[in-house]
């Protein structure tokens, strides 16, 4: 009888999971180990690009990675499906039935055996239970939501453009409310002005950024709390120069069709309302397989990134909750954390196969960079090289911001293809339209 292969299953092929699948596939191929990646999408789009996809300044079709071709290249298997449960007794993951667009079942509930399991399913936007948000605001959790936002944005731009053509004096605007003054909300607000400025070159002659009214609403005392105060102030000044109305210390208490309501009694109208005010684990993760989860539905892991109740199950990236000993805060939900965790989980899975001790995860905060589209980039870098924290702005910051995505390309494609894709990206920037208009 053929010997049973050790099966390592990774649920979630995002910033962390896809890199891990590549590394494990490259290490073990299809020999004594079977590496299986499960994702509910057929393609991977790096999540930090979603605000550009939403604004239309990035065509995700050009940057997405098809899991099936990627797995063929790197020696792992791909299963298209949604993780719905874990049976720890039989060591199986349970995938939800797959249905088509009309709700017809294509594939019934499915189980996949694992010897080792890695949960890397990311996070969802946290609406903090605010009434009406789920029904009336768009989240930026995945490609579909970013595409939906872009389509609606284009429709509203067209509406305003047509009205302006018929009546040049008309007082018409596209009003957008962005809730959440963290990196996502700030980056999206700036990106919208970049996109609006470009539309006039693509047939909406009477539309430009002056027809856009963006309000950025932040509950805390200032936007970009992760950055030092002077950098956040510089970003705020840049946003206001573009035309963004920045409201700090303003808590949203309700969203209704066409407006959000704030605790201080304001009603802020929005043709489009986007909610980007924090993340949490998806509901199905709550107590999944009897594992320990936080009230925010994140999986609690120990120093080796194994879940606290099952050493055969690792969790990493946004869906994991890890507070290093003595630290005030847990490791933040960031792409750089997912990347670093993928390195540790890879090392620990290999060590476990070879009977070596596992190593603890050490998070190295490399700093934060926030892109205000082509207008500016601000951030602070951390590390021994710069001797603590260093503020960066302008071209250097922009270059470093762009290099984050390039590093992701190298991590998931390897050097040769990664460098080729970076070169193709440069060519596309010249030969392709600057906006995605469909
Ligand atoms: C607009 C935006 C801008 C950002 N900018 C930055 C930035 O500049 N720098 C930074 O460090 N971080 C940034 N982030 C945060 C960063 O994107 C996340 O921290 C990072 O992607 C987390 O990686 P992950 O692997 O944990 O999850 P993800 O990258 O979110 O991947 C999760 C994967 O799991 C899959 N999945 C989810 N549920 C299931 C399921 N039930 N079954 C199967 N598959 C499932 C998803 O399809 C996805 O492929 C940004 C986020 C957003 C939204």
Describe the model.
- The strands form nine sheets. The protein has a six-stranded mixed β-sheet.
- 33% of the residues lie in helices and 25% in strands.
- The protein is of the alpha/beta class and 438 residues long.
- Helix 1 (17-28) runs parallel beside helix 9 (335-353).
- It has two domains: 6-123 and 281-353, FAD/NAD(P)-binding domain (3-Layer(bba) Sandwich), CATH 3.50.50.60; 133-277, FAD/NAD(P)-binding domain (3-Layer(bba) Sandwich), CATH 3.50.50.60.
- The protein has ten helices and 27 strands.
- It binds flavin-adenine dinucleotide.
- Flavin-adenine dinucleotide (FAD) is lined by residues 11-17, 38-41, 44, 47-48, 50-51, 82-83, 120-122, 140, 183-184, 317-319, 333-336, 338.
Q: In short, what is this structure?
A:
By secondary structure, the chain is an alpha/beta fold. Helices cover 33% and strands 25% of the residues.
Q: How are the SSEs placed, and which strands pair?
A:
Layout: E1 6-11, H1 17-28, E2 33-39, E3 43-44, H2 50-55, H3 60-63, E4 65-66, H4 67-74, E5 77-80, E6 83-87, E7 92-95, E8 98-99, E9 105-107, E10 110-113, E11 116-119, E12 124-125, H5 133-136, H6 143-166, E13 174-179, H7 183-199, E14 212-217, H8 229-242, E15 245-247, E16 252-256, E17 259-262, E18 267-269, E19 272-275, E20 279-280, E21 299-300, E22 306-307, E23 310-315, E24 320-321, H9 335-353, E25 367-372, E26 376-383, E27 388-393, H10 394-431
Parallel strand pairs: 1-2, 1-11, 2-5, 11-23, 13-14, 13-19, 14-15, 21-24
Antiparallel strand pairs: 3-4, 6-7, 7-10, 8-9, 12-20, 16-17, 17-18, 22-23, 25-26, 26-27
The protein binds flavin-adenine dinucleotide (FAD).
The site of flavin-adenine dinucleotide (FAD) has 32 residues, from strand 2, helix 2, helix 7 and helix 9.
């Amino acid at each position: 009888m053929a010997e049973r292969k050790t099966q390592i299953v990774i649920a979630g092929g995002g910033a962390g999971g896809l890199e891990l699948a590549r590394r494990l596939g490259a290490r073990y191929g299809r020999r004594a180990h079977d590496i299986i990646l499960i994702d509910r999408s057929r393609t991977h789009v790096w999540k930090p690009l979603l605000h550009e996809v939403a604004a239309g300044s990035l065509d995700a079709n050009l940057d997405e990675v098809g899991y099936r071709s990627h797995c063929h290249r790197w020696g792992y298997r791909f299963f298209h499906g949604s993780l719905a449960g874990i049976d720890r007794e039989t060591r199986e993951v349970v995938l939800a039935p797959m249905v088509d667009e009309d709700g017809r079942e294509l594939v019934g509930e499915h189980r996949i055996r694992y010897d080792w399991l890695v949960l890397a399913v990311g996070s969802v936007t946290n609406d903090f239970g605010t009434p009406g948000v789920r029904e009336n605001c768009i989240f930026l959790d995945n490609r579909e939501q970013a595409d939906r936002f872009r389509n609606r944005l284009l429709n509203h731009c067209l509406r305003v453009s047509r009205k302006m053509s018929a009546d040049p004096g008309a007082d018409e605007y596209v009003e957008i409310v962005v809730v959440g003054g963290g990196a996502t909300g700030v980056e999206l607000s700036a990106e919208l002005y970049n996109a609006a400025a470009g539309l006039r070159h693509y047939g909406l002659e009477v539309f430009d950024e002056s027809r856009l009214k963006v309000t950025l609403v932040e509950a805390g005392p200032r936007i970009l709390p992760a950055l030092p105060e002077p950098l956040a102030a510089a970003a705020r000044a840049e946003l206001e120069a573009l035309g963004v109305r920045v409201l700090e210390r303003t808590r949203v208490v309700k969203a209704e069709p066409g407006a959000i309501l704030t605790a201080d009694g304001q009603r802020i109208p929005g043709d489009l309302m986007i909610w980007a005010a924090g993340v949490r684990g998806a509901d199905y993760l709550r107590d999944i397989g009897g594992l320990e989860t936080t009230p925010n539905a994140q999986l609690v892991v120990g120093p080796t990134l194994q879940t606290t109740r099952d050493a055969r199950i690792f969790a990493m990236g946004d869906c994991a909750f890890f507070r290093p000993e003595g630290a005030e805060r847990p490791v933040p939900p960031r792409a750089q954390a997912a990347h670093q965790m993928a390195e540790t989980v890879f090392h620990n899975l290999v060590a476990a196969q070879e009977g070596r001790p596992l190593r603890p995860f050490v998070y190295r905060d490399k700093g934060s960079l926030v892109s205000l589209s082509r207008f500016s980039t601000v951030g602070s870098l951390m590390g021994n090289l710069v001797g603590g924290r260093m503020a960066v702005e302008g071209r250097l910051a922009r270059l470093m911001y762009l290099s984050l995505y390039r590093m992701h390309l190298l991590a998931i494609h390897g050097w040769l293809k990664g460098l080729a894709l970076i070169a193709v990206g440069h060519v596309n920037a010249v030969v392709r339209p600057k906006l995605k208009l469909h």
